[in-house]
Amino acid sequence: MLLKSRAVFSLGLRMCSTHVTTGPVIEPGRPSSDMSEFRKAFAKAKNIAIITGAGVSAESGVPTFRGEHEKWRKWHSQDLASPEAFSRNPSRVWEFYHYRRELVLDKKPSAVHLAIAECEARLKKQGRSVVVITQCQDDLHRQAGSKHVLKIHGSLLETRCMSCGQVTVNKQSPICAALKSKGAPGANVPDAEIPVDKLPRCEERDCHGLLRPNVVFFGETLDSHILTNVEKEMEICDLCLVVGTSSIVYPAAMFGPRVAARGVPVAEFNMNTTPKTEYFIAFLEAEVRPTSICHSERRTQRGT
Ligand SMILES: [Zn+2]
């Protein structure tokens, strides 16, 4: 039992700031693992912002392409996910994205995605709101049932026309005939060198422009409309959860600290290993079903 309690705490629940009006105030910036403080803040919160990152997708088996050794063929994602790379070699970049699209289309939401979606549905009935602000480019939050999702880095399952700008949801597999069975990630796989007119093309009347994945490439600015919405959510939230992100990619890395600077509780969860994830899920489920006897018991057992 003690070990379990420790495991929960070692999960990395960090209150960057726990300025809770009825509870003790913990110095901003000083992490705490006081679950009761988090629980109080959760019970009172009307507008909860949940910031998610690659760790959440990794729970469903989606590779992050962030690690030093996580290469596709000879390249890191930053070598391929750039406007320059796309303009230089659209075939290679499309092969990379085709590979990632096929991976994502094959995955199911994890228990973390489901718990977050359930949290939104449950709190909505109580007149409370949950927004998911995600860096993930898959569709797993929506598949899990989350309604209010802001995807700050775009979507693998959308295309944008380079000529007319049309953005379209596209879940076709393969996205075009020429990419069928292409995109294998092995280091020695040769480029398919698909002619540009055989790559995904716009279906708008008289356009036929080259499509690109509707994701934010390295070096590109984020969608201003989405950023404006994120700003609003950051202003109104009274509790912020940062889940499965190493908080190194800007501007998302600043969201939590900005909210904490307003004196709003920010809880950070990282889930790099499966055992920890198990505890995270248990914890979040306990929080989203506070009246459940089953989960109350589980909480008691964990000594939290
Ligand atoms: Zn077009």
From TrEMBL:
Where does the Deacetylase sirtuin-type domain start and stop, copy by copy?
28-304
Where does the chain bind Zn(2+)? Answer: C161, C164, C202, C207
The record lists substrate as bound by: Y97, R100
Free-text remark on how the cofactor is bound: Binds 1 zinc ion per subunit.
InterPro entries named in the record: DHS-like_NAD/FAD-binding_dom, NAD-dep_sirtuin_deacylases, Sirtuin, Sirtuin_cat_small_dom_sf, Sirtuin_class_III, Ssirtuin_cat_dom
The UniProt catalytic activity note for this protein reads: N(6)-malonyl-L-lysyl-[protein] + NAD(+) + H2O = 2''-O-malonyl-ADP-D-ribose + nicotinamide + L-lysyl-[protein]; N(6)-glutaryl-L-lysyl-[protein] + NAD(+) + H2O = 2''-O-glutaryl-ADP-D-ribose + nicotinamide + L-lysyl-[protein]; N(6)-succinyl-L-lysyl-[protein] + NAD(+) + H2O = 2''-O-succinyl-ADP-D-ribose + nicotinamide + L-lysyl-[protein]
Q: Which residues form the active site?
A: H153 (proton acceptor)
This protein's domain notes? In contrast to class I sirtuins, class III sirtuins have only weak deacetylase activity. Difference in substrate specificity is probably due to a larger hydrophobic pocket with 2 residues (Tyr-97 and Arg-100) that bind to malonylated and succinylated substrates and define the specificity.
> What does the function comment of this entry state?
NAD-dependent lysine demalonylase, desuccinylase and deglutarylase that specifically removes malonyl, succinyl and glutaryl groups on target proteins. Has weak NAD-dependent protein deacetylase activity; however this activity may not be physiologically relevant in vivo.
Protein name (record):
NAD-dependent protein deacylase sirtuin-5, mitochondrial
Organism, scientific name: Poecilia mexicana
